[in-house]
Design goal:
Arc Repressor Mutant, subunit A, single chain, six-stranded mixed sheet, 3 domains, Nuclear Transport Factor 2, Chain: A
Length: 291
């Protein structure tokens, strides 16, 4: 009964602050790179707020925002420590862009290529970069949220920009009309010459199975190796799969289903009409919310 009471109170809280809750989840997701962990962070903060004496919070929005962002930074720090034992490559948890707006606003979701790039930063650098570049916070606001000086906020942002070598945060990668269907037809028919034409010379393929399903342990680099990899795994694992085109974090994507179960999400990063990067998210824990 106690658990049910807490759940009902949380549901009421969510409904009364739906738009803010979406923003809070976006802050946490963009910092952690995990949608499920982001939801947990927001729920924990809301529970903490509910247990505080009434009238003890002067500015509810500021309190919740500050609490969620700092708790997300702590969660990312814990995650970073655990990655040393993660089997293979770690990729961010994808969000189906066209299904967003229930828990996340589409406009608040960072592109998948940027989410991958942000893994170069430490959690505080990542938070400063996201708040400044994606959410238009000024350094005074960032300083208050993270309890740092304005000067420190500027220095952290400068280091983050140098590490990333980009300030593009609202990137949307659109595939030409029929591009994904063309890719499916080519790989299904085993037409390696046409498939090769779709690949950039310096293409990189990264696969994340989390040690729970088969996946490449290291990035596959170069047109020749990626071509062989794509052709080989399709024949071996996906020839009978149902493949559905979609969109993930503002990138074109394919969802692979076997016997009705989602087994792979392939995200495409295009450059001049060719595949520059492609990501296979196969870890079942990262696919559960996409089903």
């Amino acid at each position: 009964m106690a658990a049910l009471h807490v759940t009902l109170r949380l549901q009421y809280c969510y409904k009364s602050m739906d738009s803010l809750q979406q923003s809070l989840t976006a802050y946490a997701y963009n910092i952690i790179g995990s949608y499920e962990d982001a939801k947990d962070v927001v729920q924990d903060v809301l529970l903490e707020k509910m247990n505080r004496p009434e009238g003890s919070i002067d500015n509810e929005k500021a309190y919740l925002t500050r609490s969620v962002i700092n708790r997300a930074i702590n969660a990312k720090n814990r995650q970073k420590k655990l990655l040393s034992s993660y089997r293979g490559e770690w990729l961010p948890e994808p969000v189906a862009t066209e299904k967003a707006d229930h828990d996340l606003h589409q406009k608040d979701i960072l592109s998948y290529s940027l989410m991958v790039l942000l893994e170069k930063l430490d959690p505080k650098q990542r938070a400063v970069f996201i708040l400044k570049e994606a959410f238009d916070y000024d350094h005074e606001e960032i300083a208050k949220v993270l309890d740092i000086s304005v000067e420190n906020s500027r220095k952290i942002l400068s280091r983050a920009r140098k590490e990333l070598r980009t300030d593009t945060v609202h990137e949307v990668t659109k595939a030409p009309e029929g591009y994904l269907s063309k890719f499916i037809d080519i790989i299904h028919n085993g037409d390696t010459k046409k498939l090769e034409q779709l690949l950039n010379d310096d293409i990189v393929l990264i696969s994340d199975g989390g040690g729970k399903v088969a996946a490449a342990l290291y990035p596959v680099e170069g047109k020749e190796k990626v071509l062989a990899f794509l052709s080989g795994i399709y024949r071996k694992f996906y020839y009978a799969a149902q493949i559905v085109p979609g969109n993930v974090n503002h990138h074109p994507a394919l969802f692979y289903y076997m016997d009705g179960a989602l087994v792979n999400c392939q995200v495409f990063e295009l450059q001049n009409g060719q595949i520059h990067r492609t990501y296979f998210i196969r870890n079942p824990d990262k696919l559960s919310h996409l089903k």
